Amino acid sequence: MRVICKNQDFHTVETGTLLVLQFEAEGRPQTASYEAVRAASNGWLDEVESSGEAKGRVYETTVLHRPAGFAAKRLVLAGAGPAAKFTPAVLRRVIAAALRKAKANGVSILTLALDEPYVTDDFVSAAAEGAHLGNYEVDRHKSKPDERTEIEEFQLVVLKVPDLQLTNSFVRGNILGESQNFTRDLVNEPGNLLTPLVLAERARTMAHAEGLECEILDRDRMTQLGMGSLLGVAQGSANPPCLIVLRYKPSQPSESKDHLALIGKAVTFDTGGISIKPADGMEKMKYDMAGGAAVLGAMRAIARLYPSIPVTAYVPAVENACGGNAQRPGDIVTSLSGRTIEVLNTDAEGRLILVDAIEYAKREGVTHMVDAATLTGAIVVALGHIHVGAFSNDDAFLTKLLNAAKIQGENMWHMPLDDEYRDYLKSPFADIGNIGGRWGGAVTAAYFLKEWAGDTPWVHLDIAGTAWLEEAKPYMPKGPSGVCVRTFVELAISW
Ligand code: BES
Ligand code: MN
Ligand code: ZN
User: Fold this and answer.
1) Cβ neighbours around 225 below 10 Å, total
2) How far apart are CA 250 and CA 246, in angstroms?
3) What burial class does residue 73 get, using C-beta atoms within 10 Å of its C-beta: 0-12 exposed, 13-18 middle, 19+ buried?
4) Which of 139, 177, 214, 391 has the fewest beta carbons closer than 10 A?
């Protein structure tokens, strides 16, 4: 799908479908393009409005074929909700939903007319993102894909001449949308096709294409270093583990010493290990590498948008299986930092691989760390599928990250991490236990990581509830969401 932006009178645009935004609620001014439709519509629009057919609710579409006064084959009023609540986040979803509908209806060229006051950087970027996000499909492994037309071109027609900055924003939107889909493609892969080493190969190919440095630490290297915590998880699987490291270095060294680490959990399949998971729903544990995939997608975008801060990605990749050599509940492992851990539950494996990656990142001198991980079922209990849980040891850094999330329309919620939670993780036999009992499971998991983050400013994002959509929405199919990619990129470029 080509995604282009041009400045043209939208009456003359030759396209399959011309989308014009329609706001909800009477008395609110509509956009000039909407009023232009009214002027050309010979009373059609007035009639539609008074019949109550088109209310402008979000994702509602009202189609007019062969509209007089327009070169377009169809004109679609795209419901955009109340004007007062219209944000880039709403536009992103409205476009994605309209594009999905267009695909189902045989349209191959789709155009959005965007006019003032919405011809801004944020809206233009969101429109491009929405087109890519809406175009994403999960049926790549079907021998015959589901019936639909492919959109050949999405056009954004802005009713003023775009300046350089606006053009840049549009380009950025494309990069963000494509990179988020890159992440979703990885997350969508089943565990048999995407093992840790396959993920590493995908990362390497991407890194070479984008001009990032790539280093893959294999099992031998990790054994040499002493990553006993990560390796303990990996030992139950026939598929060997690795630690994927990608480096982005700005071309001009900046005065600041800041160095951002993006760390992502990549358990390519989580059976639970010896503390095995119930069969029901276990197939979904192929998405237990969504944190790692989000980090890789973000690095792809970062390589193309060249922020001024160096960014290094650390993606510990393992399969948590229950082969004959699998670790047992009660095993004690020694992590890279030297701390010993009693593995009370082999299904609490994400934290075990993350802490060795965190320690490794710290040794490389990073100054700020963010991790994304499908870490706990408990975060789903706490926040449902709506918010990412955000935990931190540094309020200023957390605020920075939450701002980035807000700008990018990703819902994140600040969760507590008081020192009182430390008691939950006590072990009589080792420095710490890997689980904290029944209550506050998302917090104790985060607290475990905090023990390794130490004084380095760090944010942990638990994406277990948000990385995978349980049912299709108008703007996206059931499956991987690609959450965190846009926030990570925003964090880096706004640094
Ligand atoms: N990968 C799971 C967490 C998860 C649950 C992700 C649901 C996505 C959806 C993680 O490795 C896990 O198994 N966590 C355990 C921890 C428990 C053993 C303390 C959990 O949440 O049950
Ligand atoms: Mn698990
Ligand atoms: Zn897991």
Assistant:
1) 17
2) 13
3) middle
4) 139
Q: Is the pTM of this model over 0.90?
A: yes
User: Relative to the CA of 434, which ligand 1 atom is closest?
Assistant: 19
- The separation between CA 384 and the C-alpha centre of its own chain, rounded to angstroms, equals 17
Q: For residue 385, which ligand has an atom nearest its CA?
A: 1
Residue 288 in contact with ligand 1 by CB distance below 6 A: yes
Opening angle at CA 325, ends 321 and 327, nearest 5: 70
Establish whether residue 162 lines the binding site of ligand 1, counting it when its CB lies within 6 angstroms of any ligand atom: no
Nearest listed ligand to the Cα of residue 284: 1
User: Is the CB–ligand 1 distance for residue 377 below 6 Å?
Assistant: yes
Is residue 232 within 8 Å of residue 326, measured between CB atoms?
no
Give, for all 495 residues of the chain, the pLDDT tens digit. Answer: 999 999 999 999 999 999 999 999 766 689 999 999 999 999 999 999 999 889 999 999 999 999 999 999 999 999 999 999 999 999 999 999 999 999 988 899 999 999 999 999 999 999 999 999 999 999 999 998 888 889 999 999 998 888 889 999 999 999 999 999 999 999 999 999 999 999 999 999 999 999 999 999 999 999 999 999 999 999 999 999 999 999 999 998 778 999 999 999 999 999 999 999 999 999 999 999 999 999 999 999 999 999 999 999 999 999 999 999 999 999 999 999 999 999 999 999 999 999 999 999 999 999 999 999 999 999 999 999 999 999 999 999 999 999 999 999 999 999 999 999 999 999 999 999 999 999 999 999 999 999 999 999 999 999 999 999 999 999 999 999 999 999 999 999 999
Write down all domains in the chain, each with its CATH number in brackets: 2-162 (3.40.220.10), 189-493 (3.40.630.10)
